[in-house]
Design a protein that fits this description.
Length: about 300
C-alpha cells in the first residue's frame, strides 16, 4: 500500500471512531448542535472512502482510452465530497428548524459535551499526524483531508463552548442556533470545494507566481533559442502538463534544438517533479516577439 493510501485508510478508521463517539454524544443529549457535528463527521467517513477510491484510480497508468492518465479522479472525488457536505448542511438545517420551534436544553449535557470533545481531540491528533508526516504537503487529497479535520476541530470547540453557555445560562434556543451556524459554515465549505474542483477540471491556469517561475526558468535555460510563446499549463490531481512553442534560429539543426529542449526540461522537472512537458520547436520566421524572450 502506498503512502497516501495508508494515510487515507488511517483517516477512514479515525473517521469511523469519531462518528461513533459523536453519535453517542448526540444520542445521550438529544442536542441539535451535537447532531450536526456527528453528521459532519459522517461526511468525513464518506470523504475518506472517496479519497481511497480516487487515489487508487489516479495511480493507474495511462492507457489507450486515457492517454493522459487518471489523475483527475481526485478532482471528481472532491466534487462528490463537496456535494455530500452541502447535503449534510441541508439535513442539519432541517433538524435545527424542527428544534427551534420547540427549543429545549440537551439531556445529560455534560456527558454529551465530554463525548463530543473527545471526538474533537481524536481528530486534532490525527490532523497533527498528517501534518508532521509531510504527506499533506505532497498529496493534494491528504492536504484536503487534513484541512477538513482542522475545520472539524474548530467546529467542535465552538459547539462545546456554545452549548456550555446555553446550559449554564439556561438559553435553550442557543442549541438550534449553533446547529444553523454550523450548517451555514459547512455549506460554504462544500460550495467552495465544488467550485474549486470544477475549476480545476476545466483546466484552470496555475497561480501567477508559478507562471512567473516557469518563465524565469525557461528564459534562463533556453540559451541559443529566440523566444518561447503560447505557453499553457494545466493541473490534474498530482499531475501537471506544460506545453509551449520554442522558436530557434532557422539554421539550427534538430540535434542542437533538442539539446536546448532537454536543458529546459531538466530545469523545470528539478523544481516540478513529475511535470509532463511538450515543447514544439519552430524556426525563426514563426517568432511572435512576445511571451518569453531569450536574451
Amino acid at each position: 500500500m502506498t503512502t497516501p493510501l495508508r494515510f487515507a485508510s488511517g483517516s477512514l478508521v479515525v473517521g469511523i471512531v469519531v462518528v461513533g463517539v459523536k453519535a453517542a454524544a448526540w444520542q445521550v443529549s438529544g442536542s441539535a448542535a451535537l447532531y450536526s457535528d456527528a453528521l459532519e463527521s459522517l461526511v468525513n467517513v464518506f470523504a475518506a472512502l472517496m479519497v481511497i477510491f480516487a487515489l487508487r484510480t489516479a495511480a493507474k497508468p495511462a492507457d489507450i482510452e486515457h492517454p493522459y492518465g487518471h489523475a483527475k479522479a481526485e478532482l471528481l472525488s472532491a466534487v462528490a465530497e463537496g456535494g455530500l457536505i452541502v447535503f449534510a448542511a441541508v439535513l442539519i438545517l432541517e433538524r435545527a428548524g424542527e428544534t427551534i420551534l420547540a427549543p429545549h436544553l440537551p439531556h445529560h449535557p455534560w456527558l454529551g459535551l465530554a463525548l463530543n470533545a473527545s471526538g474533537g481531540v481524536i481528530n486534532a491528533v490525527w490532523a497533527g499526524v498528517l501534518g508532521r508526516s509531510g504527506a499533506a504537503r505532497r498529496y493534494p487529497a491528504i492536504a484536503a483531508d487534513q484541512a477538513h479535520l482542522i475545520a472539524d476541530v474548530i467546529t467542535t470547540i465552538g459547539i462545546v463552548a456554545g452549548l456550555s453557555l446555553a446550559v449554564l445560562a439556561n438559553i435553550p434556543v442557543l442549541d438550534p442556533l449553533i446547529a444553523i451556524g454550523i450548517a451555514i459554515q459547512i455549506a460554504v465549505i462544500g460550495g467552495r470545494t465544488i467550485l474549486n474542483s470544477l475549476s480545476l477540471l476545466l483546466d484552470r491556469a496555475p497561480p501567477q507566481d508559478i507562471v512567473a517561475r516557469i518563465n524565469s526558468l525557461v528564459s534562463t535555460h533556453a540559451t541559443g533559442a529566440i523566444e518561447a510563446h503560447d505557453m499553457r499549463m494545466r493541473q490534474a490531481g498530482r499531475s501537471s502538463f506544460l506545453e509551449f512553442h520554442l522558436v530557434v534560429p532557422g539554421t539550427m539543426t534538430v540535434a542542437e534544438s533538442h539539446i536546448i529542449c532537454d536543458r529546459i526540461e531538466a530545469a523545470l522537472k528539478q523544481e516540478m517533479p513529475g511535470v509532463i512537458i511538450t515543447i514544439h520547436v519552430e524556426p525563426d520566421y514563426k517568432a511572435k516577439h512576445q511571451g518569453i524572450l531569450v536574451g
